[in-house]
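During the reporting period the student researcher (J.K.) took over the structure-prediction task from the postdoctoral fellow and processed the backlog of single-chain submissions. One of the processed entries is reproduced below for the supervisory committee.
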Amino acid sequence: MILAVLVALIPSLDATTHHEIVSDVRWNDTDGNSVEAHGGCVLRSPLDGIWYLYGETRKGVSNRKTPPTVDYLTQGINCYSSASLAGPWRFEGTILRQQHVVVPGLRGPWIMQRPKVLFNPRTRQFVLWFHLDQPKQHYQSHRSSAVRSAYPMKSVGRATADRAAGPFTFAGSLLPDNHSSLDMSLFADPDEPARAYLLRDVDHKFIAISRLSDDFLHTTGVISKLCEPNPRRAGRRRNRDKCEAPAMFKLHGLHYVITSGQSGWASNPLTLWRSSGAALEGARWTRLGNPAPTLSYTQPAYVVQHASPHGPHAAPHLMYMGDNWVHCQPPGDASLNAITHACYQWLPITLERGPQAGAMPVRIDARRSWD
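J.K. obtained the following structure tokens:
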């Protein structure tokens, strides 16, 4: 059974796709410009029933150096809208720009990555979280002569709005629960939308999960961790054993998280994790393996979860949102700046049945297009 969002909700993403979502290609908005919404999420507003796509602006470069130098001054967060998940997408604007971010004692340019937006049914506001940082700083490794780089802030930024398309007002930065925060995501419980959580990569050591405060603007303490180092394994963990880019969904009362390994822009297998019980508080996590063995060049951004029209006991419709960062250049373009052509992988999540369902309950198959 394919847990794709209903065909009725997915007309054409682009005028040329004929009611299909097409992956691994660049998309155009209704003005004919490239859709730039990387590392983002999709939200269906309960106020107007419209789908809103949020994501990073184009990862531009300022020159042709090797490696290319990112033009951080152009980074921001974009918003698009559509009556359907398949588009066409209308550009609503850049909802958060460099000049909107103010951090006492620090100056930009700012890194603004992996934005996620939730609707808070208590406050009736849209709440945006994102990885907020300054450009990476270089340092000498104390273990070798190698020069390494790292983000200095490792924090999150937040903003709020009364409308899904903004305007958004910056609400400050913080270290969630006094832990560093790199790749991050949000999750609202589909059974209790006023209950929401933050997931984030804590300094490449583990993925931490914290419940959000009632206003969705703060965390209330780490309640669970996954992808922790195994104390029985000697030596340093390999990058493929570390996790980043978490994306959570809920299925049959249990929580699942999809993560990627850490290999820079290079592709690596996805990993699916399953909680030990219905509650996230104190949950233990089982590593199930790769749910997408046929999928290449992908990093998780989000999982769109939509209730089935067949009632609360039916399985939800799920869609995987991923980024293909460096394999979407136009034919014949061998430039160093592949990331400027980053594109998307939106795919239905399939519910497994039969003997294999216990070991791997879902599957994400590589598809050029689907409806």
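The committee noted the following: Residues 1-18, 62-68 have pLDDT under 50 and may be disordered.
J.K. will present the remaining backlog at the next meeting.
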